[in-house]
Amino acid sequence: MDELLYGVAYYDEYMPCERLDEDIRMMKEAGINLVRIAESTWSTHEPQNGVFDFSSVDRVLDAMHEAGIRVIVGTPTYAVPTWMVKEHPDVLAETPDGPGRYGARQIMDIANPTYLFYAERIIRKLISRVCDHPAVIGYQVDNETKHYRTSGPNVQLRFVKYVREKFGTVERLNEAFGLAYWSNRINSWEDFPSVVGTINGSLGAEFAKFQRRLVTEFLAWQTSIVNEYKRPGQFVTHNFDFEWRGYSFGVQPDVDHFEAAKALDIAGVDIYHPSQDELTGKEISFGGDSTRSLKGTNYFVLETQAQAFPNWTPYPGQLRLQAFSHLASGADMVEYWHWHSIHNSFETYWKGLLSHDLGPNPTYDEAKTIGRDFARLSPKLVHLKKRNRAAILVSNEALTALDWFPLPGGNVRYNDVVRLMYDRLYEMNVGVDVLHPGSDSFESYDLIAVPALYAASDELLARLNRFVENGGHVVYTFKSGFADENVQVRAGAQPGLIGEACGVRYNQFVEPKSVTLKGDPFGVGEEQSGVSVWMELLTPATADVLAWYDHPHWGAYAAITENRYGKGTATYVGCLPNAAVMGKVLERAVKAAGLWGADQELSFPLIVKSGTNEAGKTIRYYFNYSDEPRAFAYPHGDGTELLSDRAVRSGERIELDRWGVAIVEA
Amino acid sequence: MDELLYGVAYYDEYMPCERLDEDIRMMKEAGINLVRIAESTWSTHEPQNGVFDFSSVDRVLDAMHEAGIRVIVGTPTYAVPTWMVKEHPDVLAETPDGPGRYGARQIMDIANPTYLFYAERIIRKLISRVCDHPAVIGYQVDNETKHYRTSGPNVQLRFVKYVREKFGTVERLNEAFGLAYWSNRINSWEDFPSVVGTINGSLGAEFAKFQRRLVTEFLAWQTSIVNEYKRPGQFVTHNFDFEWRGYSFGVQPDVDHFEAAKALDIAGVDIYHPSQDELTGKEISFGGDSTRSLKGTNYFVLETQAQAFPNWTPYPGQLRLQAFSHLASGADMVEYWHWHSIHNSFETYWKGLLSHDLGPNPTYDEAKTIGRDFARLSPKLVHLKKRNRAAILVSNEALTALDWFPLPGGNVRYNDVVRLMYDRLYEMNVGVDVLHPGSDSFESYDLIAVPALYAASDELLARLNRFVENGGHVVYTFKSGFADENVQVRAGAQPGLIGEACGVRYNQFVEPKSVTLKGDPFGVGEEQSGVSVWMELLTPATADVLAWYDHPHWGAYAAITENRYGKGTATYVGCLPNAAVMGKVLERAVKAAGLWGADQELSFPLIVKSGTNEAGKTIRYYFNYSDEPRAFAYPHGDGTELLSDRAVRSGERIELDRWGVAIVEA
Amino acid sequence: MDELLYGVAYYDEYMPCERLDEDIRMMKEAGINLVRIAESTWSTHEPQNGVFDFSSVDRVLDAMHEAGIRVIVGTPTYAVPTWMVKEHPDVLAETPDGPGRYGARQIMDIANPTYLFYAERIIRKLISRVCDHPAVIGYQVDNETKHYRTSGPNVQLRFVKYVREKFGTVERLNEAFGLAYWSNRINSWEDFPSVVGTINGSLGAEFAKFQRRLVTEFLAWQTSIVNEYKRPGQFVTHNFDFEWRGYSFGVQPDVDHFEAAKALDIAGVDIYHPSQDELTGKEISFGGDSTRSLKGTNYFVLETQAQAFPNWTPYPGQLRLQAFSHLASGADMVEYWHWHSIHNSFETYWKGLLSHDLGPNPTYDEAKTIGRDFARLSPKLVHLKKRNRAAILVSNEALTALDWFPLPGGNVRYNDVVRLMYDRLYEMNVGVDVLHPGSDSFESYDLIAVPALYAASDELLARLNRFVENGGHVVYTFKSGFADENVQVRAGAQPGLIGEACGVRYNQFVEPKSVTLKGDPFGVGEEQSGVSVWMELLTPATADVLAWYDHPHWGAYAAITENRYGKGTATYVGCLPNAAVMGKVLERAVKAAGLWGADQELSFPLIVKSGTNEAGKTIRYYFNYSDEPRAFAYPHGDGTELLSDRAVRSGERIELDRWGVAIVEA
């Protein structure tokens, strides 16, 4: 698209009264130029098997077109109608908890052919009807697709074939997964048990990978159908989402975003995050970096919060701050879920831009200022190009493997380690791309952060070694390299191949109790020097020791090391340190990689994000993520602050309101 | 009945040895003049299908009659025999957890015709046998009846018909419940899914209402059978119970007590409550006010605790205090569950008046003094008439709706708000009746407290507005008026129609963090001024603001308001305040309603309850709910302290022992 | 066996590469002279139904024999192969949670004849093949056998027959279990319901006893098969385990160890325990005393930890301390689970003597010193004979009954009371045997500690009275004697028959809140004088009161009493006291019983254990269970410290390193 899109999810079908004209009037007033429709309302559009009623789609398309508002049409396949379940109860996914129960969305078996038959039919009916409508700019296939833990007999059967395809013989399978243990050997393919009850982490992790592949296949299948109808200029996107911990926290366990995004034209995402005093911009940044990295270019925020929950109702200024933060990560669209708060059912307290009274309110009033600024600044802000020299490597496989072999206590999981690293880079204003094990672009970066890469092939570890050898900088945490791609622990010295680049070895690990880093080596203060959850008893081979453990018995071992290897350096963090220590370790690596600049002299809550606009100029966003006004000396070349349309000189002091934004083009 | 009844539940069938004569001897010594029998022992009375053995009933009736002890016979239908379940496993209720398992009581499907067939037969056999026995004064139908979450196919089918009867068309149903959401529309009655998995709060709440109707019908059906045998002078009662939080806490979610009580002659109830240092009398008062209000007259306490749990074993004096507290709320009966502690099975540690040794013990010894006083004072204390000018409005519908749309954190539920208001009125010695949405007597009161009336029809809200307009005083809490009777949030300004009487509007609400009421407006101290869990951002229209929020961003909004409307006032509490603040708000309303008198100058732990006896004299009970002796100046006209049979002059100082009681007739 | 066995569980089948020669080389270096094999790997040995492959057994036996390492062969029956479950899904135990799922070990129905058929076949095939191999010294039948909650229809049916056999008539059953309660009477055997849903504690406890009998029968059946092949000199053992609370905590609820051990030649056990700063030796001692008592002689520690969990990785010295502690309790074998850490599946982080890298590590290096010392000192340390004069009486029946009728709060269960007593005796270096209700050797002891003997027959209580009468000393805790063998609470005064010996009575009990023992009667300090969880309101008849409660209302009652009865004394602890108070009460009894000697002048963390070796000399182990060096004056006759091979004179000061050991032969 050629302009910034400011949108809302719109549900004419949910309205308690006739509102279309009034809604469009209020949307226009708020600068809304996009709506997404239809993705949740199959039972309205196909009220009975084979009976179709797209009247609400038609009238919304016509009215939006007349108002100049663009429309994304979603395929309504993630929530199945009552008639389908009544006719074919087995469209519901059988999960480890048993057969499904009708009620919620996202409860069907995405591998069930009955479901697929009906899904294909409604997709063809809907898309063929709307594809020529001038309001339609693109399509969203399904919504927040996952595998919903589907694991019934049909899925088990396909999994057996998938495993046979992969391993060829039961002997190789038994060996790779260690199935001799507790008499789990599968000595004939017919004996393959349902893996629902398995206690073998390798088998369980492989099944999770297979389930993620079902998602990839499902989305590719939907996209291929929609592509048959897609007009030139239209796009297909999908609304990915993240590991949910009450908000968008980290890598999605149930979908391989990189694989699944391949079929799409544009990557889309929903990003939800804490607000009020807990608003930090971290999720906006992480979600944006992750989604931008899927296809290496701009992306859509297909859903984000307007008022949402009572504890997220934004303070004055926060809605603006959030909107521009999305743009600063490379989003070309900010779309709220949703326009109007819903009066019944499950998400009644997940509020939209309008409250239940459907009139103006302070959040809506603030949206009006955003709509105005988006429209005015669109030519300068759309299609922001970013070129980051740092990256973080994330892995679905490592995540699943660590869920099978959790850290003690169960509170620190894979994504906590990811965020421990990511958030520190964010706080020091280091722009980051997100890599995955299949990425072939390691060499484009100077620094790669590698959190808890627990399950990884020798090939991947060798590539990382090569990256260092060639002059790259890597910071690893504990657990990296421990197991191979089959979640088989390596039988040699730990941490596997990367031990070479890191210059370190260990064969014992313990749970720290009252352990600190000896002598506060990073100067963060004794109270920040604690080690928790996990510690490996490192013996440096060639590495320099950055920190030793302080403990009566484990004091002989290193905690954090750094090793020159080829032209680069590899840092190894053998324990879970405090955030402050992790920040210092990464700061050291950022400096070694030559990435420390003027933006790094500022730090959270003062956040800087930058990129290049279509005119080739540098756009720098300055965000104040705090409840106090803040100021800073603008360190770059003379430019223009776009929101105020005011010249800014190098070195000039820029003042930011609490939760304030400035955008400098230079 | 013509006298105070002091009773015990008696289970000859549970005795480990022949004890009837000795039990009766000990009962007489304790002044016990009533026993309830037979309600739990179907398998004894019908040991095999169609084989009856009422010998234990016969011998107990005869022996009791001879001893002058009256008997209530319970229908034994709430615990089914093994033979029935073995023959017909489907008599067990299918619940959301699956098919039932034999073992406990209250596990059958009260809508199952097989169960109903056997239930009717045992009722007719038992009641026809005992109805002419001179010991029998009345009947208890079933016991603590609820719907036991029955929700199998037969119940689902009846629910569909019930919904169709109510809404007529699927279109009206879909609209009222907002079923378009997440593709939940039901476009043909045949498609109606089991609601067990529903995520639609309107549908779920309607099913809960339907389940409560099953209870009403079941009890009316049992009563109609017993009525065929009932002699003149005999009564039918039922033992209702409350929301159980380890004790009788609040409104029963699963039964509409008001509807279910219509078929009965006398309302009965069980009331269990904390004891020892936690004894406050609040549950006795709340349970009593609730039950008295069912039929607007005296009621039976069919079960209450003797020793019960280890942590409830009463301190010396407490059993007496409790017994007279029941009378003070209008009870004509105090009956212990149960006579003797049981030696096996599930409630072994729920002890009776006798311990397992079946001999005297300190609790039993104290009961003897109660029995003596009851017998002596019965003519003065029986049939106490109460005429309260304050009321509290409770609603099963609001309770269920708030369970579907819970307050943040999940710790504060409907009954917590009910008790937050009720307990404050109790502490200031304001007598209270309990109203329900169907009550037609609002105008008999000067003050109505309305906790969290979340789901309510326009008609009900209009009636409340009218009550204020005509000079009444209402105190509402947050969430009142928010949704209609179908749990559909109102699409207009909040709090719906009552916003008019309250002179206030809001369309945003947040979760308070570090929020207080600005400037301690009620003088309760800063540390008591906190706001928790919920706050609505109120904008006063015509209302006076009693309290503003103290918060950097929400300080512009009102927290508690008061509005003159017609001849009355409406107070709106838009947040969850501390108990002290709620007390002050209610005190202000009590004074405005002209209900502040001499009794309000005393306060908890000094509790005053009053009423009029059959001689037309005023009876005033004074209770010391504390472990310290207390005294007060008796403020009313000259009278007689009945326990000591001593004259009391107006203004005279009355001393109460710790956990002590005085009763003044004047 | 004629020498100390130092062993490891060895799984050639789990190895990721060919390692047998290297493993044996490293074993020999560590002094390992025993391996246990084959107990977990049925699917390797019978890869398809009726197809057998014992090649890994053969080659290990041959190689071990060549190396002079002895082998125990386990029957591989506790983990079933995939083919069996695929052919016969009903071999999986149906439990209260439903049908079984394949995956883990210990999931089959040990009463299922299909399972038993295949189990018998593999046992015969395996044992017949190995029995003549010179490396084989004995057999382990199954592993950590329990009943796995099996409770499907076949088990229910057998239970009915078992109950009928026991009670003869339904009338006697109904009476003994109090089934009249809540209409649970069984009036015809055909009506017997599945007890899975029962709420009757007597019935539930009887079923648990029946399930324990299934275990006894199963182990006896396996043993009888193995016995057919056993050569002279070979033995059959089993690896019992304890109640698991993250480690071996107390009496095993699901197995009657005393009954089950009868069929075996030698008792075996696994003992796992906290380590690092939490290492106390208590579990080693408790587990050892328990297992030694099963057959009244030496036993095998068939599994104990090497590195195990990250939080158990031993500090330097601890592995040695643990090994000698096992010997000091009478073990003739210390065997680690397991040799090498496993690279896949469920117990990857339960590490063996070798880490995953299969090379040396600090723990392995310490094992080498143990192996050397075991070999050198075997003639002096093997077959240590112990003769204790104190005992503790434990009861499966009391444990189960207290699970049905738990103490308030649910945190203090039967084994907590067992350990509260046991650990105090351990800390004061009093050697203890473990008795059970069926023991006929009460009279061999001077002191019996009786924790919470909640369910016990009159016969047992009378035997305990007789023991006191004849001069014995008993210390009872609260709850003892309360219910009979059918978990029917006694209808007479409490604590039943033992009230006579204890000279005390009660009929009320409460939950203590802010209750202490009045005046700190044991001089442990006020802060240690608290009473928690449970208190009985004791009235002394003939007893002396050792402690009164301090409470405004319960102060009239005794808490702890002591009574002279015949020639002995009975102490009754009517409440849950602090550990310090329990220690003082037991110290008083130990002194009264004449068991206080020089060893009692030392105390934890200085632990003394002693016995007689084959040469008739006294062996005394001194252990320092602390992280500080300690010293003491050696109080016994002149002897030799065996580890240093140094003479020790009476009165000489012996120094122990932190976590140090000394062994004096005198």
TrEMBL record, chains A, B, C:
GO cellular component, one term: beta-galactosidase complex
Pfam families from the UniProt entry: Glyco_hydro_42 (PF02449), Glyco_hydro_42M (PF08532)
Domain Glycoside hydrolase family 42 N-terminal: 10-376
Keywords: Glycosidase, Hydrolase, Metal-binding, Zinc
GO biological process, one term: carbohydrate metabolic process
Organism from which the protein derives: Cohnella xylanilytica
Binding residue positions for substrate: R105, N143, W312
EC main group: hydrolase
InterPro entries, per the entry: Beta_galactosidase_Trimer, Class_I_gatase-like, GH, Glyco_hydro_42, Glyco_hydro_42_N
Family membership noted in the UniProt record: Belongs to the glycosyl hydrolase 42 family.
Catalytic activity reported: Hydrolysis of terminal non-reducing beta-D-galactose residues in beta-D-galactosides
Protein name from the UniProt record: Beta-galactosidase
Active site: E144 (proton donor), E303 (nucleophile)
Single annotated GO MF: metal ion binding
